Amino acid sequence: MYYEIEDELGNVSTLQLKQREREEQIEPPKSGELAPLFYLRNEEGFPVTSLAGASSDSEARSVLDLVRFKPLVLSFYCNCWGSYAPKHLQTVKTLAPQVEALGGQLLILTNESQKEIGRIARKLDAEVPIYHDKNYNVARSYGVFSETSPIWDRIAGISEEVFTPSLFVLGRDRRVGYAFVDENFDNTPDVRTVLRAVYNGR
Fold it and tell me: SUPFAM superfamilies from the entry (predicted)?
């Protein structure tokens, strides 16, 4: 598309506006598929994610390490979801003791600051690790974040870059046993189905 712009001196210049290119959208992993690999590490005391493990970081753990002995419930969460956020967090809070009782574990990935992560932990009132998903890398690899298809472009009340509400259950073979992705912000994970997937993933 071309536009002609005239300056104060009457000079006319032509500008071509190119349509924004859409990146190839990564689809979230489905039940039975291998979950994307990622790592957890500490960056100056701040728990963050990474898509690559550094050989010098002896404390970094991969998702393979996490599911070696226990199935994993992986939740993406953001306070900036507005009124939807407390509902999702309440579901995670409900799941936490039941997942642990079944021999599973829970992990939350968020885009929040270290201070805000502390507040989320207090709201949960449960021993659930919460990591900052640095640069949205893990969310992007799980198909629940995209710069070129932002949530604020289609969901009223959201004005910043956020994850799509989502929760996955990974079995000890790293395969997805349950996948919940709420594109329309109108649902919550089914607790019974999550727990069944944890049980089956042991």
Answer: Thioredoxin-like
CA angle 32, 34, 36 (to 5 degrees): 140
d(CA 7, CA 47): 52
The CA angle 165-196-32, to the nearest 5 degrees, is 70
pLDDT digit string, tens, across residues 156-187: 667 678 889 999 999 999 999 999 999 989 99
Residue that has been written with the tokens 């089914």 in this structure: 190
Least confident of 10-19, 51-60, 69-78, 137-146: 10-19
- pTM as predicted: 0.84
Intra-chain end-to-end CA distance of the chain, in Å: 56
CA distance 18 to 2: 9
